[in-house]
Amino acid sequence: MEGERPASPARSSGLPAGGAEGDSPGGGAPFPGSSGSSTLLQGEVLDLDEDEDDLEVFSKDASLMDMNSFSPMMPTSPLSMINQIKFEDEPDLKDLFITVDEPESHVTTIETFITYRIITKTSRGEFDSSEFEVRRRYQDFLWLKGKLEEAHPTLIIPPLPEKFIVKGMVERFNDDFIETRRKALQKFLNRIADHPTLTFNEDFKVFLTAQAWELSSHKKQGPGLLSRMGQTVRAVASSMRGVKNRPEEFMEMNNFIEIFSQKINLIDKISQRIYKEEREYLDEMKEYGPIYILWSASEEDLVDTLRNVASCIDRCCKATEKRMSGLSEALLPVVHEYVLYSEMLMLTEEIGKLEDKVECANNALKADWERWKQNMQNDIKSAFTDMAEENIHYYEQCLATWESFLTSQTDLQLEEASDDKP
Amino acid sequence: MEPAPVDPERQLQPAPIEPLGLPNSGLEAAVGEEAEGARDAGSGVDTMTENNFGLKKIEISVSEAEKRTGRNAMNMQETYTAYLIETRSVEHTDGQSVLTDSLWRRYSEFELLRNYLLVYYPHIVVPPLPEKRAEFVWHKLSADNMDPDFVERRRIGLENFLLRIASHPILCRDKIFYLFLTQEGNWKETVNETGFQLKADSRLKALNATFRVKNPDKRFTELKHYSDELQSVISHLLRVRARVADRLYGVYKVHGNYGRVFSEWSAIEKEMGDGLQSAGHHMDVYASSIDDILEDEEHYADQLKEYLFYAEALRAVCRKHELMQYDLEMAAQDLASKKQQCEELATGTVRTFSLKGMTTKLFGQETPEQREARIKVLEEQINEGEQQLKSKNLEGREFVKNAWADIERFKEQKNRDLKEALISYAVMQISMCKKGIQIWTNAKECFSKM
User: Fold this and answer.
1) Residue B265: which of A263, A287, A302 has the nearest Cβ?
2) Tens of pLDDT along B37-91?
């Protein structure tokens, strides 16, 4: 399982046994007042580490930021992250499968809302069962995201689909909107499941498994250990505002994010526009074919030819519909998710201000950043490759249609020629 | 000018003026004048090959279009386009063509030629001219008459018009047509001298007026109905096709935006950069490929338009038949009433009301001499009427026979042409698909290398 294996981590400079994630310059806990908790975690972690003799353990101590009580030590160096990514690419190693479906409308006296069914299948030991089915509403997803951000302020948390309706829709809950949201929510949960750190977050587990009343009561609990730490990080961060020596990597990252954000937004707009134009083309084509049928009614000698043309146009319409659905399945959701990611990342700039004193945060973010970029490249590459494939398939369909028309015409001519023979 | 089979002197005679409905006799004369000696080759329709005119094989082309300025009838300056018409005669022996005539004509002269043909050959489905003003345009296409693309398409349309006439077994022998191709100056005057405008039945233009015909030839009624349907369906088709073209244009062009954005994005990407950049280039290629595709499709639209206008020509023939039939029925009615009058006068019985009859009753009988005189007048009129009715009947039958022969010819031409147009439409679609496959395959390769 990707999360549990602290596989070949690279050695970071300095491996103080007692420190937090490798790069802290001095010994001792990075934050005042948390040494107590770190010892506790340390103890748990060591037990598990003894099994992994052959693997070089990067750090024996839990990262105070990126740990939760379920998982063993999480490797946090960039290279170890890359190994995590490798596991992500191997689906057989995945042990948490989540689907979001069956949107259902609920009407109460105060409000109307939609819940989604979430089915989780897992082989992980920490889960009491191998299959869970729960119902959640958008508010619950928001809660989960909030908790994750609190607990892991240096990690890139996947985006949620928009809260409110994008302009252009009339009804609050029309079918397209619900379907788009469902897909995005499923993506959200799977992204978390695939993330080496986030997948072991306790709130995540509760979200996936708790019954409605259990979730409500869990929500009411005060902020957990991790969120308290997260708050501390943020407090430190804001106190360090205006520090001058920004690490170069963060400048680079910010620059990238700025331009990436611009471009992905444009690509999102272009892709949506293409979908719209294709829809309008389809609408006109649907009107075009029948006119040939109408015409065939008054032309006795051209009936077959005209009807053939009409049927070719009809088949091209079907091919267009398929092309459009390909676009909306493969390309549009992916691009849009990255638009939301980029919006979020623009705000993560704050983290850049964490300096040498909080290098652990830098590293965690940097590692997650590298992971995110790698994912992004793979996702974009695959989305566009799929789009190209859809287009090729579309043109191949249409080509076959018109070629068969030509063949049938030549056959017709040969028939007529042989009829004319005495 | 190359020695043509036509005596140049004779060309200056106006086209023979024949009563409408008997065009063949006039043409025979014309052919006789033109084809001295080789009458047998010229008279049979089956010996006529395409573009065969006055025995020699000729090629006609409208090869150029030029903008001109001049002064119009009201002495105001105007800009118009002139078209160069070149006629070549082809030597049978070596297939080489020699330029025999070349002159410039403007659209209004083509119109004049056509109007003349409509009057002198009312039983022929006269080929239509390309449209005067651009219609059924999709947004990118200009509706401006001076637009070079429109002028180019019109040049082709005018050439097609002349070729249609030259390959028509009857029209190709017309003198005025021949002069159109060969006599630059004075041609307009020559046409007007035929007095064809006076011969034109003004009722033909009154499209909305209905003439109650009791016994129309059913085939013509059906034909009129067909021409209405053809016109309606082709108009509809052209309108929707223009909208489809518009939308297709949009789809292709939006992809061009990817090119620019990919290029800008590639600047910040290390591994993905090259792939993005080259994929972007293919998106640009895709976006620009639509221009040629739609230009080709305009050719298909033009082929349909020709038959849209042919529908009008068909209706004109039907109309002519209607009017002839109406005149015939009126004449027969008139004759019948005169006969009745005569009979009544002779026998003294008054079955029909007539003013004269009433007045004689009121004011006294007329003398037998007066009555005789009237009967005589009526008998003369009846005789004349019977002759006229006979010739009108003959005219009518001739008209129906000749018209129907041309309609059969037209039907075959239409079926051939439309089939060919539909096939060439399919060929265009195939070419568009092949181009699409190629571009997206290249793009896919770039994407997969990212």
Assistant:
1) A263
2) 333 333 333 333 344 445 567 889 998 888 888 887 788 888 888 999 999 888 7
∠ at Cα B230 (B21, B297), nearest 5°? 120
Nearest to A36 by CA among A55, A64, A56: A64
Facing residue for A285 by CB, picked from B244, B267, B447: B244
Among candidates A66, A80, A69, A63, which has minimal Cα distance to A44? A69
Judge: B233–A298 Cβ closer than 8 Å, yes or no. Answer: yes
Buried b (16+ CB within 10 A) or exposed e, B256-285: bbbbebbbbbbebbeebbebbbbbbbbbbb
Average pLDDT over residues B263-283: 90
**Between B236, B240, B437, which is nearest A399 by CB?**
B437
Q: For residue B369, with 0-12 CB atoms within 10 Å meaning exposed, 13-18 middle and 19 or more buried, which class applies?
A: exposed
Retrieve residue A70's tokens: 């379920």
For residue A270, the tally of other CB atoms under 10 A from its CB is 19
Cβ distance of B250 and A280 shorter than 8 Å: yes
- Write B14-17 long-range contacts (CB < 8 A, 24+): B14/B190, B14/B193, B14/B194, B15/B120, B15/B174, B15/B175, B15/B176, B15/B194, B16/B175, B17/B194, B17/B195, B17/B199
Cα–Cα dist A328/B260, whole Å:
22
Tell me the chain B residues in contact with residue A298 when contact means C-beta distances shorter than 8 Å.
226, 229-230, 233
Phi–psi pair at B102, nearest 5 degrees: -155, 125
What value, to the nearest 5°, has the Cα angle with vertex A186 and ends A181 and A190?
145
Mutate to test the interface with A, among B251, B255, B425, B428 (most CBs of A within 10 A): B251
* pLDDT > 60? residue B31: no
Residue B60 DSSP SS3: strand
Question: What does the DSSP assignment read for A177-238?
Answer: HHHHHHHHHHHHHHHHHHSTTGGG-HHHHHHHH--HHHHHHHHHSPP-HHHHHHHHHHHHHH
Tens-digit pLDDT string for chain A (422 aa): 333 444 444 343 333 343 333 333 443 333 344 343 444 333 333 333 343 333 333 333 333 333 333 334 444 444 444 444 444 455 557 889 999 999 998 888 888 889 999 999 998 888 888 899 999 999 999 999 999 988 887 788 899 998 776 555 555 567 888 888 999 999 999 999 999 889 999 999 999 999 888 888 887 776 656 555 555 565 555 544 444 455 666 777 788 888 999 999 999 999 999 999 999 999 999 999 999 999 999 999 999 999 999 999 999 999 999 999 999 988 999 999 999 998 888 765 554 544 444 555 567 777 888 888 899 999 999 999 999 999 999 999 999 999 999 999 888 777 777 776 55
For residue B367, is pLDDT > 50?
A: yes
Contacts of A399 in chain B (CB under 8 A): 430, 433-434, 437
Partner A, chain B 269-328, Cβ-Cβ below 8 Å: 269, 271-272, 275, 279
ipTM associated with this complex: 0.81
- Strand order of the sheet with strand B77-90? B52-53, B56-71, B77-90, B97-106
Could you give the 3-state DSSP secondary structure of residue B72? Answer: coil
Tell me how far CA of residue A184 lies from CA of A344, B244, B429, in angstroms: 16, 33, 38
Q: What is the pLDDT of residue A11?
A: 40
Residues of chain B contacting A305 with CB distance shorter than 8 Å: 418-419, 422
Write the burial class of residue A64 (CB in 10 Å: 0-12 exposed, 13-18 middle, 19+ buried): buried
Interchain CB contacts (distance < 8 Å): A and B: 138
Interface of B with A in 379-418 (CB under 8 A): 411, 415, 418
Q: What residues have CB less than 8 Å from A33, skipping those under 6 apart?
A: none
